[in-house]
Amino acid sequence: GDSVITVQLTEEDKIEDDVVFYLVFTGSTVQHCTSTRKINRGSLETISPGHDCCETVKVALCASREGRPVLVVAEESFQFVQDEAYDAAQFLATCAGNQQALNFTRFLDRSRPPAADVDFLDEKVALAFRHLKLPAEWNVLGADQSLTDNIPRETLMHFAVRLGLLRLTWFLLQQPGGRGALSIHNNEGATPVSLALERGYQKLHQLLTEEEAREPDSWSTLSHTVYSGDYSVKHHRKLNVYMLTAEA
Q1: Is 82 in contact with 132 (CB distance < 8 Å)?
Q2: Three-class SS state of 43
């Protein structure tokens, strides 16, 4: 999701001032409707929705004019494929609480990827996490809820903070067990909060310690989502387009 899609119109469908175009993506369980931005008389731009699974969906380009019925201008298929970010998010989601797997992720820290790569990783993995269908019982600390805060262990929050992943940290904070993970020490005696301080991640440390901390600017400039039951509306600030997603 969140890739830019360009729509090229044929000569007879050139944009008129009073016509509004939008795209409808119909999957097996979820439907998305996106507004579009007019680039010129022959081109539209919008953002691809984040889908809940990898499948081929039907896309309809619709035109709306006040006082007239909605017209389906064209139809096409669109394929959602599994990429590295989706694989990484799935791996991290399944290894919550798995000490062997979480210790394995620490090799990334030793390789210290460049800042630009970290920012790209943060954006893509956090986005993929938001689109995963996590089980209702999923918890940042893993499935074993009998463990106390006094037992040293590695957590997903340690992983996100160690690499300076601001968006992923924000996402985990909103999940069950996210706040509880902040006080857990790993085998070196470090909590996610002390790791952020030790590594000089000021924005991250602020996010973890301020009770009224808001979502990071680096996240909110991408999009803002409002949820209501089986529906969500997302506003992409960069292109100023809106997306309505509904469970079918």
Answers
A1: no
A2: strand
Q: Which amino acid is at 100?
A: Q
Name the 3-class secondary structure at 81.
coil
Alpha-carbon Rg for the chain, nearest whole angstrom, is 21
133/155 Cα distance (integer angstroms): 20
Distance (Å, whole) CA 165 – CA 237: 22
Q: Cα(134)–Cα(132) distance, rounded to whole angstroms?
A: 6
Q: Which two tokens stand for residue 206?
A: 């602020």
* Per-residue pLDDT tens digits for 161-220: 998 898 899 989 989 999 999 999 998 999 999 999 998 999 889 889 887 766 665 554
Which contacts of 206-214 are long-range, i.e. CB under 8 A and separated by 24 or more positions?
Answer: 207/166, 207/169, 207/170, 207/173, 208/161, 208/169, 208/173, 208/182
User: Which class for 38: exposed (0-12), middle (13-18), buried (19 or more C-beta within 10 A)?
Assistant: middle
203-236: b or e for each residue (b if 16 or more CB lie within 10 Å)? Answer: ebbebbeeeeeeebeebeebbeeeeeeeeeebeb
